[in-house]
Amino acid sequence: MEQVIAQASVLSQHLWWQHGVIYQIYPRSFQDSNDDGVGDLPGIISRLDYLQWLGVDCVWLSPVFSSPMADFGYDISDYQGIHPLFGTMDDFDELLKEVHNRGMKLLLDLVPNHTSDQHPWFLESKSSRDNPKRDWYIWHDGKNDGGLPNNWLSVFGGHAWEWDDTTQQYYYHAFLKEQPDLNWRNPEVQEAMMNVMRFWLDKGIDGFRVDVMWHMIKDAQLRDNPPFPGSTYDANDLIYDHYTPVYSTDQPEVHDIVRMMRAVTDEYDERVLIGEIYLPIHKLVTYYGQDNKGAHLPFNFQLLTLPWDAPQIAMAIDEYEGALPENGWPNWVLGNHDKPRISSRVGRAQAKVAALMLLTLRGTPTIYYGDEIGMRDVPIPMNEIVDPQGLNMPDLNVSRDPSRTPMQWSSDINAGFSGHKPWLRLPINSGRVNVDRQKDNEYSKLSFYRKLIRLRKEHAALNIGDYRPIYADQQLISYIREWGDEQFLIILNLSHRPAYFKPRQESFTGTILLGTEVERIGMIAEDIITLGGDEGLLIQLSNTK
Length: 545
Ligand code: NOJ
What we know:
Number of strands: 21
Radius of gyration: 24 Å
Bound molecules: 1-deoxynojirimycin
Structural class: alpha/beta
Strand content: 15-25%
Strand order of the largest sheet: 11-10-9-5-2-1-13-12
Distance between the termini: 29 Å
């Protein structure tokens, strides 16, 4: 009892977003309440008890706003309206209340880089060159010969400039042509978006995940992006990754905007600002901002983007820990709606090892819905692809549909997600891989996640404790988490073969508190510790020498 009280008081010295676990919901796919095949807000409300049972502290919703759905909600036509597919504003208010009633937090997705081409701002902007909102977007003449303003490409393939016949200029869109980029150099745009933030913060939401934060400002001179080193320049090559977006993203001035967003966030108590940023570590950490007045958590996607290779991951963890600014709080992400699911990427056998890593590294973890039951990318036949990224680049196999499929709740029809055929198909094994089947099975992934989340709550060392790397080789990563008198050793075997943990300088003795193999729980581990292939151990140390 005393221990529990002591832990609670340690945690209370940290903010909720430092010791909590974030859970991302892709609203179209969590729970359908009105049998139209698409998830909605009342559906999410009906599943909040599950999230509370799982032990997560915070729910982040991908966009639920008014949208023509060209990019499934990341093309917003009214930042202050709820799309009828998801419900009403009353449903939203109810959701917020119910989340808070359960002691949890709610984050929304803010998409400030671009709007929908149906947003009234853009409709005005494109109506004439002298419309007061003309400069709210990035309009440009063609080059002398009528060519494109520069060589920038859309992330979704093809040129990033779209010709507008009426006003005889191009506009810039980093994503779809239905997603024109706002001109963040314009103070009116800044003010409008700060007011959007205030609207939701006034309602009581607990913060934002900011979409493509590093895209928000582009080079004032619109200089050409250089080809990616090693790739040959070819004007017909319209693949985004073949260029280095040095002039279209991560511009120095973006930090002023992030600071402005943070200042608005700080007008309210204990709200959090998270940035979606795909950049190398040394650049990523600049988004904490000067004096930590930038994003609270620039999302750290190392575990999503690196090969699943022990030396590379061990190095990235240490590089990240070393690069964090003083008082910059770390975070880790294992899955999201844009990337293949972890269980497909690293394989079923490694999925628990990955979870153990996510939930024992120092920093705020973000879990992607369904990963806790080991959901995998669902093979979607070509003629069922709906993701614009997949449709635009059919030869590259980059559709994001496979990782956005409905949550698998039960063995019922449509896995308990909906009474209607879902908007994306379920896997053939959803009758076997689902929450109901795993809930009371101590060997399941779901039980593993739940136990880990509980252990983080019970032991400050695992949560806000210090991190110390111990040993890594071709197969293993290991580190210690410590706080006060408590020390935990985590050993992760990222390979399929058995491995020996044998650090040269130190030897350790302790009790296995949790492991990927349930049978090992409670056993003593000491000296050279042998691990099976795909095994991970969480050991409470009794002594170190
Ligand atoms: C990042 C989002 O996560 C992704 O789903 C979306 O397509 C792009 N931004 C454009 O908004």
